[in-house]
Amino acid sequence: DIQMTQSPSTLSASVGDRVTITCRASQSVSIWLAWYQQHSGKAPKLLIYQASSLENGVPSRFSGSGSGTEFTLTISSLQPDDFATYYCQQYDNYPLTFGGGTKVEIK
Amino acid sequence: EVQLVESGGGLVQPGGSLRLSCAASGYTVSVYWMGWVRQAPGKGLEWVANINQGGREKNYVDSVKGRFTISRDDATDSLHLQMNSLRAEDTAVYYCVRDRCCVGNSKGWHDYWGQGTLVTVSS
Known about the structure:
The complex is a heterodimer of chains A (107) and B (123). Chain A is an all-beta fold and 107 residues long. Chain A is built from no helices and 11 strands. In chain B, the strands form 2 sheets. In chain B, strands 2, 4, 5, 6, 9, 10 and 11 form a 7-stranded mixed β-sheet that branches. The relative contact order of chain B is 0.31. The interface between A and B is medium-sized, with 27 and 25 residues.
């Protein structure tokens, strides 16, 4: 199985900060990587697919980059609604696997 | 508007069975892959299973193979997950997902999620 490792596991930041979350795969997943946002008690929401494609309706302050084994999710200017947990997921091979999550907290 | 509504969760004893259902609406259900993702209390996300259009291809995470069966009924726009021989570690919120599939050799990613149904396996 492909292991996905996110860092950091928790991140403290302020409104307006630039935030970067890293996701590493145990083997190459090409560009077959998605990012999801989950608010506490809610269902996850798709942000990014194909490593860098922004899902319709997602604010442009979110961006994704990377390929192979290393990927990043960047929030250019953190907004109050962005305090949530973020997960990466590879969809290159079965079983599909998620990273452990990064919780973005208010500093 | 795409909607996915899960039902069928509840409390079940270890070794018992439960059948989850997902009612899909707002799009042409038969042309999309569908699947299930779960989340144990306070834990991260775990992909469970998916099924292709027409239901001929099914994929499962190893921990549920031989115990869970995914199926779909395009006549009623519904997805199901039959869960047998349930274990305490199957306790989780189960999300129904629509998969956008595929580009090149990739599998699908989850573009819509239901609100989830809680399954608790305990004596």
